């Protein structure tokens, strides 16, 4: 059995030192991440997953703008909702208890923890959970995953919740 820190390290994507990078804003690229989490360039879908993963690895949000940020460039792009979608999940047992592992549409795994909490936000008039990710990014929980969670959710006076890493994360406002 692993500790929560060991599991997080095993799943961790190579992290970029965004706080150390202070490039000048270089304009905008015609890249759009639509509401389905698809990346488009000039209206055409980017189909090379390796290219999308590369762009995603340098994506950050500063103030209310999303950027592709490198040590020498910071280029704005358009994101219609959240840049990523949670499409699958599983529980992993750790020394700290059961941890919810969420898989996004780029097949990256994220842990639901105090550092990466689930928060409920409005999406098209409905309250929907989002997973808060590093560098100001987030991933909207897909409808199918939300319904699966609804089946296993526990309830208390505050509402329905999923427990992960010893914390309760509510699925309603």
From TrEMBL:
Identification of the protein by name: DUF1285 domain-containing protein
Residue ranges occupied by any DUF1285 domain in the UniProt entry: 17-82, 83-171
Superkingdom: Bacteria
Pfam families tied to this protein: DUF1285_C (PF21028), DUF1285_N (PF06938)
């Amino acid at each position: 059995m692993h500790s929560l820190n060991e599991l997080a390290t095993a799943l961790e994507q190579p992290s970029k030192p965004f706080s150390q990078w202070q490039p000048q804003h270089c304009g905008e690229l015609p890249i759009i991440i639509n509401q389905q989490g698809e990346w488009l360039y000039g209206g055409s879908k980017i189909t090379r997953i390796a290219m999308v993963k590369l762009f995603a690895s340098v994506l950050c949000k500063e103030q209310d703008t999303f950027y592709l940020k490198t040590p020498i460039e910071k280029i704005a792009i358009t994101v219609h909702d959240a840049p990523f979608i949670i499409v699958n999940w599983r529980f992993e047992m750790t020394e700290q208890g059961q941890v919810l592992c969420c898989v996004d549409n780029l097949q990256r795994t994220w842990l639901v923890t105090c550092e990466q909490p689930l928060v409920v936000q409005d999406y098209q008039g409905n309250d929907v959970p989002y997973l808060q990710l590093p560098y100001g990014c987030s991933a909207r929980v897909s409808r199918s995953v939300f319904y699966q969670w609804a089946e296993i959710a526990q309830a208390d006076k505050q509402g329905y919740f999923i427990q992960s890493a010893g914390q309760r994360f509510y699925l309603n406002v």
